[in-house]
Amino acid sequence: MMKTVICLQPGEMALRSAPKPVPGAAEVLVRVKRVGVCGTDIHAFSGRQPYFQYPRVLGHELAGVVDAVGSEVSTVEPGATVYVMPYLECGECVACRQGKTNCCTHIRVIGVHQDGGMCEYLPVPQDHVISADGLDLDQLALVECLAIGAHAVRRADVQPGSTVLVVGAGPIGMGILQFAKVRGARVLMVDNNEERLRFCQQSLGADAVIQAGSDVKAELEALTAGDYPNTVFDATGNPEAMMAGFGWVAHGGTYVLVSVVSADITFSDPEFHKRELSLLGSRNATREDFEQVVSCLRDGSAVALAMVTHRCALTDLPEIFPQWTRPGSGVIKAIVEVG
Q1: What CA–CA distance (Å, rounded) separates 6 from 17?
Q2: Residues 80/65, Cβ–Cβ less than 8 Å
Q3: Which domain covers residue 269, as residue numbers?
Q4: Residues in contact with 193: Cβ distance below 8 Å, sequence separation at least 6, in sequence order
Q5: Are 66 and 30 in contact (CB under 8 A)?
Q6: Distance (Å, whole) CA 189 – CA 187
Q7: What CATH number does the domain containing 190 carry?
Q8: For 261-309, what is each residue's pLDDT tens digit?
Q9: Are residues 97 and 11 in the same domain?
Q10: Residue 308 to residues 198, 298, 303: CA-CA distances in angstroms?
Q11: Terminal Cα-to-Cα distance of the chain (whole angstroms)
């Protein structure tokens, strides 16, 4: 048997026992050691996550140790320290045939469409279990989170010397900030949390920060000599902020919606055409993005551990998780320790 934490319905988590799984022929049984808590988990707990059904075992930012392997597995061996790529693609649809496995027509995301890693053992297809020497378990648990930002920056093709605006200074926004800096961009941040903005500037290298309650457009005009940012990323998960961002992009610029919300997003069509904006959605990440994150963590051009502010044991999660979701909790990134 193993311990597992289940989100029974919005606002309710419970610790349960379940049979220890057995890996299939092409599967790896991961003994989960670390689970990063993501905005997706918080939104699911709050009942605000699209593509979601209950009850569900949450958790898709996963690191652990290989416990056992199926008879056909040749990629990893028992005892290896690994992270998990949680996006399970079909490999055959129109997106997969283009290498866009992150938006597979039939995608199954661990912890969203099927049960995730807030448990002691999880079977995962062998090609989604990756060994990464030189990184510790905490770092590996944050690879997926950072890969979201790396993918958004790559999708937008951020250029050296350009000005980037990141709206939303949560972990995803912090990842976008770091990988835009890796590309040589000047990065501005907007958020309503002064503490997070200060952290982004002092610890992650943001070039300037703007309080969301101020006249953001006027401050952007001043910071860019009237040009406005070449690329704007929204990582807020807030429909009003997402719609406001259309007015903050330079003529000829690009607007990237990394957030996903259960709402319709509208914008002024004349303004959109006047500036010939490019509007992009950015979903999940691909293996290329995961590999870039690992490389940048190894060489120090990206950091993960500085974002971790809270942690708890799996057995304490049903009691502590609601506290993490409350405004004013101070959580930037939380990690669940398993075992």
Answers
A1: 10
A2: yes
A3: 149-281
A4: 169
A5: yes
A6: 7
A7: 3.40.50.720
A8: 888 999 999 999 999 999 999 999 999 999 999 999 999 999 999 999 9
A9: yes
A10: 15, 18, 11
A11: 13
